[in-house]
Design brief:
single chain, 119 residues, mainly alpha, 3 strands
Length: 119
């Protein structure tokens, strides 16, 4: 039996950690992506960690892993319907992040936001 003190603990069990929310935001913004595309968008994540996080999100029913029977193998990821239900919450979190960046810059701190689309 799982026990949670407050419901946000259940949410963090699925999306918690450094990388899962970033992966989900890329899938929300870009739709279906290959592992290599996600890796380019997240240059600081190791391949091992990316694979692990994707597998955990798949196990929790948040992402689909689509395997194409071809050589070389092709694997893509997209959001399940259940995963798509996270979009409003993640978009609110992203908006808050933008406000936080603006606040930080207005207080004199240097901030660089890298675009995930850079190659």
């Amino acid at each position: 039996m799982k026990t949670y003190n407050i419901p946000v603990e259940a949410a963090l069990e699925v999306i918690g950690g450094k990388w899962k929310v970033v992966i989900l935001c890329h899938l929300i913004d870009n739709g279906t992506l290959r592992t290599s595309q996600l890796k380019r968008m997240m240059p600081n994540i190791t391949q091992k960690m990316l694979t692990q996080q994707l597998r955990e999100l798949e196990a929790d029913g948040v992402v689909n892993r689509i395997i194409y029977n071809q050589v070389p193998p092709k694997v893509e990821y997209d959001l399940t319907e259940y995963g798509t239900s996270l979009a409003p919450a993640l978009q609110m979190l992203c908006s808050w992040g933008e406000q936080h960046i603006e606040k930080t810059v207005s207080e004199g701190e240097d901030v660089v936001v890298m675009s995930g689309e850079q190659e």
